[in-house]
Amino acid sequence: MTCANHLTRRTLLRDTVRGAAAGWAAMHWPMRALGQAAAVGVPAGEAMSRAALTTGDSRAENVFQALKLIERDVRESIARKKRVMIKPNLVVPNKQLAATHVECLEGILEFLKPIYQGEVLIGDSPAGTQATEAFDNYKYHELAKRYNVRFVSLDEQPTEIRHVSDHRHQPQPVRIASVLLDPDLFLISAAIPKTHDRAICTLSLKNVVVGAAIKDKEYRWDGKSKGSSDKMLIHGGPHNEAIHYNLFSLGKILRPDLAVLDGYAGMEHNGPVGGTAVEHRVAIASTDFVAADRIGVELMGFDFAKVGYLVFCDRAGLGHGDLNRIEVLGEKVTDHLRQYRPHDTIEQQYLWMTRGTAGA
Questions:
Q1: Which tens digit of pLDDT belongs to each residue from 317-351?
Q2: pLDDT greater at residue 20 or residue 72
Q3: Cα distance between residue 338 and residue 333, in whole Å
Q4: CA angle 46, 51, 56 (to 5 degrees)
Q5: Does the model's pTM come out above 0.85?
Q6: Is 306 part of a structural domain of the chain?
Q7: Which residues 6+ apart lie within 8 Å of 140 measured at CB?
Q8: Peptide bond into 193 cis (omega under 30)
Q9: What is the dihedral of CA 24, 28, 33, 36, to 10 degrees?
Q10: Residue 341: φ, ψ to 5°
Q11: Residue 252 and residue 247: Cα distance in Å, rounded?
Q12: Residue 268 phi, psi dihedral angles, 5° rounding
């Protein structure tokens, strides 16, 4: 079902009013995010981050309503930019659960219509295939019938070299799609809450960072590849020794301006591709990607202190990972907690806490 069917004028008006009322109520909850005792330790006058959490029976409307709750923040941020790109997560071309759903993009594009009249780029570099194949299989081209969009394969774009660390603390050059480094780009990360086989969980930041590292056009996961992929370098060694530091380090220059997490159906167990569905029916949105990912971690039932790359981002001031500093509009986080089954290798993934991370 398309967004045009989901987002009727009457439905939008009804749900916008409902969402605004919920947002007003959320601002008056103690501890904003969790509805517990009053927040302590937050200096008077310190800026809070705002994030929206919505739920419902329509993926597109969940995303749309979450964005409406933070519309002021988005308008202020996008006004300073010259062009817009949505970065979906298209890791593989043949498993919908692992990839950003077209209805998530519909919700974003419908929200953007009165705010941004220019062309919206939709671009990615999937892990094991070319973006054009994923665009076709997931029916993204249908969006062009209703919205001013253009599809971009990041593997075919100009690149710039940045560096990550390997397990020996040595710098390794990585090709990064130049378009994502453009200071005039308003970058939207449209991701899915998923467990991960190396970084515990994947949310908005990881979607952008790994997608920004490009691969040769000939590269495939089918064992017949003639090219190479720079994405593997972000893992930081044979046992992923530097993955958390590398995600944080590149995140400083690749941070999304707007994080959208479509948790209508998340993925648990052996993600980011081989996991199974969690019918969560939520959406999260924030112009603070750390805040959005922090709420995502909470909803998935993971310990934020163990998700190294997000902890580093919080400590470095790239956003707020402290729930006391996040004002959640819409739903209460505590009403939508789940316990996602982690990847089978989770204990090995937690070893970064005891052996250290390169460069951190």
A1: 999 999 999 999 999 999 999 999 999 999 999 99
A2: 72
A3: 10
A4: 160
A5: yes
A6: yes
A7: 88, 102, 105, 122, 134, 151
A8: no
A9: -150
A10: -70, 125
A11: 9
A12: -120, 175
The total domain count for the chain is 1
Q: How many other C-beta atoms lie within 10 A of the C-beta of residue 24?
A: 10
Q: What is the DSSP string of 181-233?
A: G-TTEEEEEEE--EE-SSSSEE-HHHHHHHHHB-B-TT--SSS---S-BGGGG
Residues ≥6 apart with Cβ < 8 Å to 248: 308, 309, 312, 313, 316, 360
Amino acid at 227: G
Confidence label for 227 from pLDDT (cuts 50, 70 and 90): confident
Q: What does the mean pLDDT of the chain come to?
A: 88
Helix 71-78 and helix 59-69, axial crossing angle in degrees, nearest 10: 70
Assess if residue 270 is contained within a domain. Answer: yes
> What CATH number should be reported for the domain holding residue 63?
3.40.50.11440
Tally DSSP H helices, then E strands, for the chain. 12, 12
Q: Report the amino acid identity of residue 34.
A: L
CA dihedral 194, 198, 204, 209 (to 10 degrees): -150
pLDDT tens digits, residue range 26-35? 322 223 344 3
User: Is 241 a domain residue?
Assistant: yes
Among 37, 203, 63, 212, smallest CA distance to 124 is for: 212
Range of the domain at 180: 3-36+48-355
Q: Does 43 reside within a domain?
A: no
CB 304 within 8 A of CB 267: no
